[in-house]
Design brief:
heterodimer; A: alpha/beta; 4 domains; five-stranded parallel β-sheet; 20 helices; disordered C terminus; B: 323 residues; alpha/beta; Rossmann fold; Helicase, Ruva Protein, domain 3; Zinc Finger, Delta Prime, domain 3
Chain lengths: 415, 323
């Protein structure tokens, strides 16, 4: 019954395909272009380029776009591949094959160099250094920090290009473009807030945008502003992925220790996201069953104030949920912010007003405020919406402020 | 003379004005005559006149200024022991001026008080019985602890007879110059299920929407205030759309303010009306019972009900496959 939507990360969907589409770092891009052009006239003095800068500012994306623009064949190795000496040799071997199938020129890329660890890979660093010395093909290195002591020898052979964080305005513009393409009407303030939060990390900004805006037609400032609270989204995405797609139950359980996440918050995230990842009805029911059992223990903890019960909450919400399903998804599925929290916190002011309205009704009608909200307010709301004269009179009788009247007549809990 | 809620405008002010509940009224009248009121428990379904009886009693006993001699507390709004200790004690220990030597404390929704608070209440009742009399109002007297029950005179309120409700509706309509059709009256009766407060609220709302009041207007009003979405939510889940069903659940809880208990009760009603094989009805009823119990134990409403929705999705899926 549920239709298959293949989710593509927007960071991928809207990845720049041409150098002109990459935002920011105009000067750096030019220097790179100039360096590449040097290769048209032979082998330049610096055979390697070392691009460095904070995460998410466009380093990798620039090289990929460049290769696309100049129709070059990109031969890359990133943190997921081994960088042992032999692996580098093999890569170099591939690159040095003359006359590729389409007559395209080659570009070698060693990405995420910061990820080189331990002795296994340092052999690789030496090999890369040797490779640069003799290469007849342009080589690009990318890292967050070029001045890491491990790279001392490497640096001498490279042209260093620094990538800086794009400006908030540039990021906003980019987000606005994506919204337009996705058919989402976004408030400027909302985009500004996301851009601000991202701290210059464009990838992170786009991920945030997707998590908040996907599936909506309108994105308001209120939708995003609650992000101002504990904002550990990157970590939470990782934790969630660990739990949902764990190799085994211990891995799922361990996810909780990965990051400083509030358990109740994590619970909400899991609850929100289960139906987006687990589609098979029997598995969905099983996962929800686990979560509901975890919730029972949560209630017991609160009631008895015995915190040792927490271990059962954790077990059930992590390992329990993970083991309920196959852990295979048809594609990459994004994680969404918990709808409940959004609603609760964004309407905190409204809830307080609602309670106050309930009190005023309750006082006049001799009932509790909660009953007033549930049993009387819905009728008052209709009267307000259909009969302004009556609304005025009752508002006076109840001693309601203008704000309260507007809120009641408006009806919807603002999202 | 502006507008006000008709539930208050037409609330009886003296014991004489109360129609029905004759036995109760006559007993209360005898209290007034004797100038003495014991502690009381007024128990019964909502909208049957319990609060009204208490207020009328006070009015007849103390006269026009009766509000100075009573205090109204609601256990829902102020539930804990501390409230009992502070507020009630302060009220209870001061002697009133005038002929009557005690004040009256009306404690509404007393069955919502925690056991601890009730224990504290009992002690307060004992200590200050000379200067304060308590009228506890509850839906279920069974939820009030034994020691308190034994100290109170019990009053059982029952649903008003149909004719009385109809008369009341007609009376109010006449006073408000509102025309109502017979099918409108029927519709209101059907929906309000004996709750007079709800009856009058629906009546007033319907009157604000259009005249003459017909069944159609009544249903439209009620549709907006009490959406019968529980059934729709269940059907959505049975059809396989968990996300949509969950959204509906959230609406019910957040927008319409239904409690978990309300929802599970309606779900239970609906289960046996579903078009599913018997074995599934039984399974689902069992799950509903489990959810209800867990809610009482303090589990989270939305989570537990969501799990039930997921079970409904599974049920729908298996039924389609002929299992």
């Amino acid at each position: 019954m549920a239709h298959r939507i293949t989710h593509i990360p927007w960071a991928q969907k809207y990845k720049p395909k041409s150098l002109t589409e990459v935002i920011g770092n105009k000067e750096a891009k030019e220097r790179i272009l100039n360096w590449i052009r040097l290769w048209n006239r032979g082998v330049p003095e610096k055979r390697a380029l070392f691009i460095y800068g904070p995460p998410g500012v466009g380093k990798t994306v620039t090289i990929e776009a460049l290769a696309n623009d100049l129709n070059m064949e990109l031969i890359e190795s990133d943190a997921s591949s081994y960088r042992t000496a032999s692996a580098v040799k093999r890569l170099a071997g591939r690159a040095s094959q003359y006359g590729s199938l389409f007559g395209r020129r080659k570009l070698i890329l060693f990405d995420e160099l910061d990820g080189v660890t331990g002795s296994a890979d340092t052999g690789g660093l030496r090999e890369i250094t040797e490779l640069i010395k003799i290469s007849r093909v342009p080589i690009v290195l990318i890292a967050n920090n070029a001045y890491d002591p491990r790279f001392t020898q490497l640096r001498k052979l490279c042209l260093l290009v620094e990538f800086k964080k794009p400006s908030r305005t540039e990021i906003m513009r980019h987000l606005a473009k994506i919204c337009a393409r996705e058919g989402i009407e976004a408030e400027k303030d909302a985009l500004r807030f996301i851009a601000e939060r991202s701290g210059g990390d464009v990838r992170s900004a786009i991920n945030d945008l997707q998590a908040l805006a996907q599936g909506k037609t309108k994105l308001t400032y209120e939708d995003v502003s609650w992000l101002a609270r504990r904002d550990r989204k990157e970590e939470i995405f990782n934790v969630l992925r660990r739990i949902f797609y764990a190799r085994d139950s211990s891995t799922a359980k361990a996810a909780v220790n990965m990051a400083d996440v509030d358990l109740d918050m994590l619970f909400e995230w899991i609850y929100e996201n289960i139906p987006y990842h687990i589609k098979k009805p029997s598995e969905l029911a099983a996962a929800m069953d686990m979560l509901s059992k975890a919730d029972v223990y949560r209630g017991r903890v609160k009631k008895t104030q015995d915190w040792s019960f927490i271990r059962y909450v954790i077990d059930l919400m992590t390992a329990g949920v993970a083991s309920s399903w196959s852990r295979k998804s048809p594609g990459w599925v994004p994680f969404r912010f918990p709808g409940r929290i959004k609603m609760a916190s964004s309407s905190k002011g409204e809830r307080e007003m609602l309670t106050e309205i309930g009190k005023r009704i309750g006082r006049k009608c001799h009932i509790s405020s909660s009953r007033a909200i549930k049993e009387v307010l819905p009728y008052i709301r209709i009267m307000f919406q259909t009969n302004p004269k009556m609304a005025k009179g009752i508002a006076k009788w109840l001693n309601l402020s203008n704000e309260m009247v507007a809120y009641i007549s408006g009806g919807e809990i603002k999202r | 003379m502006g507008y006000e809620m008709w539930t208050e405008k037409y609330r009886p002010r003296t014991l004489d004005e109360i129609v029905d509940q004759e036995e109760i009224v006559s007993r209360l009248k005898s209290f007034v005559e004797a100038r003495n009121v014991p502690h009381c428990i007024f128990a019964g379904p909502p909208g049957t006149g319990k609060t009204t009886a208490a207020l009328c009693l006070a009015h007849d006993l103390y006269g026009e200024n009766y509000r100075e001699y009573i205090m109204e507390l609601n256990a829902s709004d102020e539930r804990g022991i501390n409230v009992v200790r502070e507020t009630v004690k302060t009220f209870a220990r001061t002697k009133p001026m005038g002929e009557i030597t005690f004040k009256i404390l009306i404690l509404d929704e007393a069955d919502n008080m925690t056991d601890d608070a009730q224990q504290a209440l009992r002690r307060t009742m004992e200590r200050y019985t000379e200067t304060a009399r308590f009228i506890l109002i509850a839906n279920y007297s069974g939820k009030i602890i034994e020691p308190i029950q034994s100290r109170c005179a019990p009053f059982r309120f029952t649903y008003l007879p149909r004719e009385s409700v109809i008369e009341r509706i007609k009376y109010i309509c006449e006073k408000e110059n509102v025309e109502i059709l017979d099918d409108g009256i029927e519709a209101i009766l059907e929906i309000s299920e004996g709750d007079l407060r709800r009856t009058i609220n629906i009546l007033q709302t319907a009157a604000s929407v259009g005249k003459p009041i017909s069944a159609e207007i009544v249903y439209s009003v009620v549709g907006r205030a009490n959406p019968h979405d529980v059934r729709e939510m269940m059907l959505t889940a049975l059809n396989g759309d968990f996300l949509a069903a969950r959204d509906k659940l959230r609406d019910l809880i957040q927008k319409y303010g239904l409690s978990g208990a309300d929802i599970i009760r309606q779900i239970h009603n609906e289960i046996f009306r579903l078009n599913v094989p018997d074995k599934w009805k039984v399974k689902l009823a069992d799950i509903a019972g489990e959810v209800d119990y867990r809610l009482v134990q303090g589990a989270n409403e939305e989570i537990q009900l969501s799990a039930l929705l997921a079970k409904l999705v599974e049920a729908g899926y298996e039924i389609k496959r002929g299992l």
